[in-house]
Amino acid sequence: MAELKILHNPRCSKSRQTLTLLQEKGYDPVVVEYLKQPLSEAEIRELFAKLGLDDVKSMMRVKEAEYKEAGLQQADTSDDERFAAMAAHPKLIERPVVINGDKAKIGRPPESVLDIL
User: Fold this and answer.
1) Order of strands across the sheet with 97-100?
2) Which InterPro entries does the record match to this protein (predicted)?
3) Binning pLDDT at 50, 70 and 90, where does residue 2 land?
4) Would you say 53 and 28 are in contact if contact means Cβ atoms under 8 Å apart?
5) How is residue 88 annotated by DSSP?
6) Which of 57, 65, 76, 110 is most buried, by CB atoms within 10 Å?
7) Mean pLDDT in residue range 3-17
8) Which of 44, 11, 28 is closest to 19 using CA atoms?
9) In sequence order, what DSSP letters do the residues of 46-68 get, joined into one string?
10) How far apart are CA 68 and CA 102, in angstroms?
């Protein structure tokens, strides 16, 4: 079985709820506090592929000040610019994310991660 991981921010209620849900289901995921241990741009690109999303913005916290300050809401912003911004500002990555092998899911709502277990 693949190693189960959660990209976790302990200050986020959804992140805490998702971690609790996994533990209640008998899982003991590796907890990665991604604000303290930032992902590289390559890791973020790999995560995007595992999420199976069509749009990079779908894995971003578009309401964060850094998003608007960096001009990432502009229609001509490239995916490369968005990936670079998430590497530079990890708080722009939507949370929590549960990773199970080659699949990943954003825990909004927390129950949505059960699909990949």
Assistant:
1) 30-32, 4-7, 97-100, 103-106
2) Arsenate_reductase (IPR006659), Arsenate_reductase-like (IPR006660), Thioredoxin-like_sf (IPR036249)
3) confident
4) no
5) H
6) 110
7) 97
8) 28
9) HHHHHHT-S-GGGGB-TTSHHHH
10) 31
Provide the residue type at 73 as one letter: Q
pLDDT tens readout for residues 15-31: 999 999 999 999 999 99
* pLDDT tens figures, 32-85: 999 999 999 999 999 999 999 999 999 999 999 999 999 999 999 999 999 999
Structure confidence at residue 1 as a pLDDT band (50, 70, 90): low
Phi, psi of 97 (to 5 degrees): -125, 130
Catalytic (active site) residue 4: no
Nearest 5°: CA angle at 30, between 95 and 104?
A: 45
Query: Could you give all domains of the chain from N- to C-terminal order, each with its CATH number?
Result: 4-116 (3.40.30.10)
